[in-house]
Write a structure and sequence with these properties.
This protein has about 240 residues and is an alpha+beta fold. Helices cover about 30% and strands about 20% of the residues.
């Protein structure tokens, strides 16, 4: 199935570097990208009590992860079921993985970068096993460059199987590899990989939909099991 989706090179990148970028044409058509972007802007405007046109001013020096957006627009159901992304996520955390979160992230001009960290959540296991327990996607809805506050990674750090020290966080903050990719791309990585982001110095908003999937023994971060309706299950693949 992964070969049929033309993802073998992405698997090699996940193994070697710890992350990979799915190009927009493998994620969906341009109309799909625009529909997701419009949904994120609408939700941000509703939650902040502003018009879409006022959002750039509202998010000056501010970033906000807007939680639990899955049921606010049906387009997000398509996002979390994106075949290419789900294929790579299942390669990382198993075909029985479960959705843990689905959020929208809005980052405005002037925001500082995110410190280097790993998403490993098993605090009783500071030494990580070889396999990931969680896998992320970032569906980027605006072009990513360093000046736009893009994600950054420490390639190969997923093999070190531990959290970064305070000294390592400081060392890698300005040295981590920046992700530069066009809007519509999806970035995939596992919970062992060290990552952060750079400050946003350009005008406008950085828009992202992020999701995380976990192995089924883990508690989800958001209550999808309690809120999924029969209708939502019926209109999606098993």
């Amino acid at each position: 199935e992964l070969k049929a989706l033309d993802l073998l090179e992405n698997i090699a990148e996940l193994d070697g570097f710890g992350y990979t970028i799915i190009p927009p044409e493998k994620v969906g058509p341009p109309a799909h990208h625009e529909a997701v972007k419009d949904a994120v802007l609408r939700i941000a405007a509703e939650r902040k009590g502003r018009s879409v046109e006022e959002l750039s001013d509202r998010f000056a020096d501010i970033e906000d992860i807007m939680r639990f957006v899955l049921w606010e627009d049906r387009i997000f159901e398509k996002v979390v079921m994106t075949p290419a992304a789900l294929g790579l996520i299942q390669w990382l955390v198993g075909t029985d993985c479960i959705l843990s979160l689905c959020d929208a992230w809005v980052k405005g001009k002037g925001c500082s970068g995110t410190p280097i960290h790993a998403d490993w959540a098993q605090n009783d296991m500071p030494t990580m096993p070889p396999e990931a327990f969680g896998a992320n996607f970032n569906y980027i809805l605006t072009d990513y460059t360093k000046d736009d506050g893009a994600l950054s990674f420490v390639p190969g750090s997923h093999r070190w199987r531990r959290w970064p020290s305070h000294e390592e966080i400081a060392y890698w903050q300005d040295r981590a590899e920046v992700v530069e990719a066009p809007a519509g791309s999806m970035i995939i990585w596992g919970d062992h990989l060290w990552h952060g982001s750079y400050p946003k110095t350009t005008d406008g908003l950085r828009l992202t939909v992020l999701g995380m999937y976990n192995r089924p023994h883990m508690q989800t971060q958001e209550g999808f099991r309690e809120t999924a309706t029969t209708e939502a299950l019926a209109r999606n693949p098993i």
